[in-house]
Design goal:
The chain is an alpha/beta fold. It has one domain (4-200): Spore Coat Polysaccharide Biosynthesis Protein SpsA, Chain A (Alpha-Beta Complex), CATH 3.90.550. The protein has helices spanning 20-26, 28-46, 82-95, 113-122, 161-168, 186-190, 193-198; strands spanning 4-9, 52-57, 73-76, 100-104, 128-132, 138-143, 174-176. It has a seven-stranded mixed beta sheet, sandwiched between helices. Helix 1 crosses helix 2 (28-46). The longest helix has 19 residues, at 28-46. The protein is globular.
């Protein structure tokens, strides 16, 4: 049976340190509330994924949080920019013997368990799987071998990340999932009607 690993990057839920671009518009307190709901959703949909799961915290490992240790192994992200941290996490996964490794963040409220399962399935036929975000980045990346160059030389959070990554993969076979909304700023948040309703956020205030 092939070994599959799902890596989940999260930030420690500290007020003033999460969703800073969103907080600039709606305030630190509400931005933290949004982030906690996003991580809750991510934990819920990934809990039952039939793969090994590593949660990588940004600062320190938390005990007794939403990432139940029955389902998730906990680690700390390495130093460096996002590319370096992802590269290190993928290296960890392949060095541990996994032959299909997928990484996601916790910013996609529309992400479903079936999206991740589809990504693992497509790695049976492709070298890479990418979940493109509408802001020009990506919300999911899956590899079946470590193409470390795709993590180098990127201006992370820019609108060119997806385009540049696809250029890096031009000699490989890859599969694109559906585009999804990555919640980074207020405009992104206002597109998520179900999330607004759940958190009782009045869009007219923003």
């Amino acid at each position: 049976m092939k070994k599959e690993l799902l890596i989940i990057f999260v930030k420690n839920p500290i007020i003033g340190h999460v969703k800073t671009r969103l907080a600039a518009k709606i305030g630190d307190k509400l931005a933290l509330k949004v982030y906690k709901e996003l991580t809750k959703h991510t934990a819920l949909i990934t809990k039952k994924i039939k793969a090994h799961k590593n949660v990588y915290y940004s600062k320190e490992i938390l005990k007794n949080d939403i990432w139940n240790e029955t389902h998730f192994q906990k680690r700390i992200q390495s130093d460096g920019d996002l590319g370096q941290r992802m590269k290190t996490a993928f290296n960890d996964g392949f060095n541990d013997g996994y032959n299909k490794v997928i990484i996601i963040g916790s910013d996609i409220y529309s992400l479903e368990k079936s999206d991740i399962e589809k990504a693992f399935h497509q790695l049976n036929f492709h070298d890479a799987v990418i979940g493109p975000a509408t802001d020009g980045g990506y919300y999911l990346l899956g590899l079946r071998s470590n193409f470390s160059s795709i993590f180098d030389g990127k201006e992370w959070s820019s609108k060119n990340v997806l385009y540049e990554t696809l250029i890096d993969l031009k000699s490989k076979s890859f599969y694109l999932l559906d585009y999804k909304n990555d919640i980074d700023n207020c405009d992104d948040l206002l597109k998520e009607k179900k999330l607004l309703k759940k958190l009782k956020i009045n869009a007219e205030n923003y």
